[in-house]
Write a structure and sequence with these properties.
single chain, 329 residues, alpha/beta, Rossmann fold, 3 domains, 45% helix
C-alpha cells in the first residue's frame, strides 16, 4: 500500500504539502495541488483514517447503541439512522447494550478510542454525568427513545403519554369498561409515561381498579404471563391496553390459549407499530410511533452538530397515530 511519503516523492513535494492538500488546512498552489492529486490517484493512496482522527479531523463514523436489537422496534430505528448516515457518506457502528449499564459504558469507552464523530444512544441507564463527560470531550450525542427528561443534548422520543391515552380512549369507544394495562419496566421513561397515560383515562371508568395493571417486561412471554395473572384477578376484563406491541402479541396468544375470543370478548390494543402486528391473528390494533422517522431525525440532528458544532439541547416528542385493526373491531 502506498504511503504519504510515496505520494510526496512522486509529486515532487514535501509530506507537509500533501497533508495540506488532503486535509485542506492551508492554501496550496493549484498547480502543485493538481500534481499531488494526480499522484494520489496514480498510487491509489488512501489517507489513514486514524491519523486524520488524531489530527482532529472527522472520521466519518457514528456509533449507535441500542438496548435490544431482537426487539423489532429497534432495527427500524437503526434503519432510519443508517439511511441518513449513508447519504452523507458516513459509517454506522452498532452496539447492543442489553439494557446493561456496564456494557453500555464499555461500548462508549471503546468507541471513543476509535475516534467516532458522535453517538446516538437509546438507554434507560445513561446519566446526566455520562452526557457531560462526552460533552467535555466535544463528542456530540443524541439520546433516542429512552433517555433523560432533562439533558444537555437532544432527546428524541414519541409522545408516549398522549399515545397511551389515545389507545385507552379507543378501547372505550369500542365499548370496553373493564380495561387492563400490561406495563413495561418502570425504570424506562417510555413505560412510565404510558402507564400514566393509561391511568389518566382509565381512572374515570366505573370498572377501574389498580389491580388491573400488571407487569409484562416489554416482551411476548411477559405479555402472555400478565394475561394469566390478570384473568385470575379479573375474569370479567373486556379490554387490554398493552404498553408495547410485543406484550400485545403475548396477550393475544394467552387469550387464544384460553379460548377467549378477540375482539368479541376481549379487545386488545398495543403500542409501537412494529410490522409483527400485521401478521397476528387477529391483526393487532396499535398506537404507532414514527419509528423510522425518529431514527432519521436523530441522525440529522447528530450530523448537524458534527458539522456545525452547534448543540441541540431539547426534548423532541413526535406525534403517534392509532392504527385500528381486527383486535378491537
Amino acid at each position: 500500500m502506498a504511503t504519504i511519503k510515496d505520494v510526496a516523492r512522486l509529486a515532487g513535494v514535501s509530506v507537509a504539502t500533501v497533508s495540506r492538500v488532503i486535509n485542506k488546512t492551508d492554501f496550496v498552489n493549484p498547480e502543485t495541488a493538481g500534481q499531488v492529486l494526480k499522484a494520489i490517484e496514480q498510487l491509489q493512496y488512501e489517507p489513514n483514517a486514524v491519523a486524520r482522527g488524531l489530527a482532529g479531523k472527522k472520521m466519518g463514523i457514528i456509533a449507535l447503541i441500542l438496548p435490544d436489537i431482537l426487539n423489532p422496534f429497534f432495527p427500524a430505528l437503526a434503519r432510519g439512522v443508517e439511511d441518513v448516515a449513508h447519504k452523507k457518506g458516513l459509517t454506522v457502528i452498532l452496539g447492543n447494550s442489553d439494557d446493561l449499564g456496564l456494557k453500555e459504558s464499555s461500548y462508549i469507552k471503546v468507541l471513543k478510542k476509535k475516534y467516532v464523530d458522535g453517538f446516538i444512544i437509546a438507554s434507560n441507564t445513561i446519566r446526566e454525568e455520562d452526557v457531560e463527560a462526552l460533552r467535555k470531550e466535544r463528542i456530540p450525542i443524541v439520546l433516542l427513545d429512552r433517555g433523560l427528561n432533562t439533558a444537555s443534548c437532544a432527546v428524541i422520543r414519541s409522545n408516549n403519554r398522549e399515545g397511551a391515552k389515545i389507545g385507552v380512549q379507543h378501547l372505550i369507544e369500542q365499548g370496553c369498561q373493564r380495561i387492563a394495562h400490561i406495563y413495561g419496566p418502570q425504570e424506562f421513561i417510555t413505560a412510565r409515561e404510558r402507564l400514566l397515560g393509561y391511568e389518566e383515562i382509565a381512572k374515570g371508568l366505573s370498572g377501574y381498579s389498580p389491580s388491573l395493571m400488571v407487569s409484562g417486561n416489554f416482551d411476548i412471554e411477559g405479555g402472555r404471563k400478565a394475561v394469566e395473572q390478570l384473568l385470575t384477578r379479573h375474569p370479567d376484563v373486556d379490554g387490554i391496553f398493552a404498553g408495547n406491541d410485543l406484550m400485545g402479541v403475548g396477550a393475544l396468544k394467552a387469550l387464544h390459549e384460553r379460548g377467549i375470543r378477540v375482539p368479541e370478548e376481549v379487545k386488545v390494543c398495543g403500542f409501537d407499530g412494529i410490522g409483527l402486528t400485521e401478521i397476528t391473528e387477529p391483526e393487532l390494533t396499535t398506537v404507532a410511533q414514527p419509528i423510522y422517522e425518529m431514527g432519521k431525525l436523530a441522525a440529522r440532528i447528530l450530523l448537524d452538530e458534527i458539522e456545525s458544532g452547534i448543540r441541540e439541547n431539547s426534548i423532541i416528542e413526535l406525534d403517534v397515530t392509532l392504527i385500528p385493526r381486527k383486535s378491537t373491531q
